[in-house]
Amino acid sequence: MLVFLTLFALVCVVLYRQIWASFLNNPGLNGLILAALFIGILLSLRQVWRLFAEVRWVNNFRVADPGLAVSRPPVLLAPMAALLRDRTGRMTISQTTMRGILDSIGTRLDESRDIARYLTGLLVFLGLLGTFWGLLETVGSIGKVIQSLRNQQRNVRDLREFEKTDWPHR
User: Fold this and answer.
1) Does the predicted TM-score (pTM) go above 0.70?
2) What is the pLDDT of residues 18-40, one digit of tens each?
3) Of 43, 25, 32, nearest in space to 137 by CA
4) Residue pair 57/70 in contact by the 8 Å Cβ criterion
5) Whole-angstrom distance, CA of residue 89 vs CA of residue 3
6) C-alpha span between 72 and 166 (Å, rounded)
7) Counting beta carbons within 10 angstroms of the beta carbon of residue 57, is it exposed (0 to 12), middle (13 to 18) or buried (19 or more)?
8) pLDDT, tens digit, for every residue of 155-169?
9) Spatial distance between the Cα atoms of 118 and 108, rounded to a whole number of angstroms
10) Nearest to 34 by CA among 22, 50, 51
11) pLDDT tens-place string over residues 44-80
């Protein structure tokens, strides 16, 4: 994730002028998009960071002597920690118990990803909104150009008519 974010930042630095010019076309909407993106990146990094503590707990639990208390209980693996808390010697877990623990962990992970999914959908929606906004402005600009061409054409026609009628009086 950090490698991707670094590459993204480098591309932004290289294309700074073009990005800034595009940003200024609609700073309100673009600022909202950037804020949602920034919050989503921070939440995703936080979720990955939370997994490091769980992995550390599993690794400490694997090498710990039976009955040794682990200093910090896990959050996502709380059902497994409760099951294995009073282990003595080698312990086996049945397939149905392990399936229940894995389903519980999967549910907890899905719950923590709900905000990231919402922000992803929000970013897509805001991007589409910005696209349609830009298209509407383009259509409006084209209409103004066509209207000015009609006015110029009328002015040229009126000037020619004026020259035809005014010519003998000169």
Assistant:
1) no
2) 999 989 988 998 999 999 999 98
3) 25
4) yes
5) 42
6) 98
7) buried
8) 777 767 766 665 555
9) 16
10) 22
11) 898 888 888 888 877 777 666 554 555 677 777 777 7
